[in-house]
Amino acid sequence: MISKQNLIDRFVSYVTVDTESDPNSMTTPSSKKQWDLAHQLVKELKAIGLEDVTIDENAYIMATLPSNVSHDVPTIGFISHFDTTPDFTGANVKPQIIKNYDGKDIVLNAEQNIVLSPDYFEDLLLYKGQTLITTDGTTLLGADDKAGIAEIISAMEYLVQHPEIKHGKIRVGFTPDEEIGRGAHKFDVEKFGADWAYTMDGSEIGELEYENFNAAGAVVTIKGKIVHPGYAKGKMINSMYIAQEYINALPREETPEQTSGREGFYHLYSIKGEVDHTTLQYIIRDHDRTHFEERKQFMKNIADDINKKLGVDTVEIEIKDQYFNMREKVEPVMHIVDIAEEAIKEAGITPIIKPIRGGTDGSQLSFMGLPCPNIFAGGHNFHGRYEYVPVESMQKAIEVIVNIAQITAKRNA
Ligand SMILES: [Zn+2]
After folding, report:
1. What does the pLDDT look like over 96-126, one tens digit per residue?
2. Global pTM?
3. 146 alpha carbon to ligand 1 midpoint, in Å?
4. Ligand 1 centre and the CA of 382: distance in Å?
5. 193 and 247: one domain?
6. Catalytic residue positions?
7. What is the DSSP letter of 186?
8. Are residues 147 and 261 in the same domain?
9. SS3 assignment, position 138
């Protein structure tokens, strides 16, 4: 397998290229700088010997490792994204390599007193004795998801160099703009031509995910009536008090901060109010499709009840679906999860299978016809200065990719 140092070098060559995406841009990729790494990746895919290496006008990259067996094997894909989140700067990343981690505080930046501590981030203790890659405390790292890219490319390189390992046709896909929710939008599923795929975009070593939230956004607009306070009796309608009534009608305990696992929630994330009108913005989340539909209906019912009391147009609600639980698309082809689980176990790791409390590109791709569970890439503390990745977790992810290729060929022999 690829040496630790080569893997570190490869990973560092990606994270030192700034690829922050931009939610305010309408182009794809959303930021020009994403092209820099995209072009670099195209060169590298060609250099390691992949075929059909293509990049389209939106910077979606695809490549092929041809089958090396004569029998029919389903085509599988591995996908990751090369942009980083706009939530935190990804410019001038200066990765620090911590060899043989001793389980103590890691000073990321002495000058600014920024410390990565196991007192706060207990997961660090899982990696005692391993090699960690961290930030210098001033940027994010970009292991999300350049770890995934390094793992996929390293696994493909390994398979090219080891023709004795038997596998079917493998497709590789790298996308821009995942962090602003658009990674799947312009992904050409037909051109990719895989029977199924895996995003290498999970976190902790062992993670395997094929369930995510059903998601919708709701905007509640409440109309009031403004009158001079001195003459307001019986005339003024204060939309903020009606908003309060609306908020209180939803169960206070079904919120992100009071739920976990498969429990859904209503999340009020913005209030903008004056007497004349108030706007509430919510997201609605539930793994269960029936409960999800019930939650949306419940929010409409509260609006109806208030309107019955105060007049037809007092409360207006607009609800838009955002994404759906991929489980319903993956369950009919459950062997694709079984193969990944077997591959993880074969690498000597205990699979951690749990529902995602969010969405992935894989959930969108699953509904576009490409069933796509998510596998760990190894990083922790995404989207901020405390992001880090153990090199050993990345090595295990490479092994998992190679195992998946092998198991898929074997199962269809
Ligand atoms: Zn990611």
Report:
1. 999 999 999 999 999 999 999 999 999 999 9
2. 0.91
3. 8
4. 8
5. no
6. 83, 178
7. T
8. no
9. coil
